[in-house]
Design brief:
129 residues; alpha/beta
């Protein structure tokens, strides 16, 4: 009986440890990852108009690099809107070099398409030099 209790406790502890390791994995550092795709906003929009479910599977939660023109800047929430359709939030404060009308290249995690606001979303963005 004593031996069965020990094995039972050992199994429960191993399962708890495995569940803990699975739940609390290391966070991704998007700024150090290589982008899987490099494209422009019109190319991204074309992918979604062609087949939105396939495009979502392809791009969602992936590191992508986007080249586009800045159409709006919000320093308070560290966000920019690119080509009037892509909303990107930055991890660090926005550089002063980002101004409306300027073309930039950013890298970040693609979140998806917001049908309500009709815009693409990205987060953890950084400027690509």
């Amino acid at each position: 009986m004593n031996r069965k209790l020990r094995y039972g406790i050992l199994i429960v502890l191993l399962l708890a440890f495995a569940l803990f390791r699975y739940t609390y994995q290391k966070h991704r550092t998007i700024s150090t990852e290589k982008p899987l795709y490099t494209l422009s906003v019109p190319e991204l929009e074309k992918e979604f108009t062609t087949n939105d479910s396939l495009a979502l599977l392809k791009f969602q939660d992936q590191t992508i690099e986007i080249k586009a023109k800045v159409t709006a800047v919000d320093n308070e929430i560290k966000a920019v809107i690119l080509d009037n359709i892509l909303f990107a939030t930055f991890t660090d404060s926005l550089p002063r070099t980002i101004i409306s009308g300027k073309k930039i290249q950013i890298k970040g995690r693609f979140l998806g398409y917001d049908e309500l606001l009709e815009e693409f979303k990205m987060d953890q963005c950084a400027i690509v030099p």
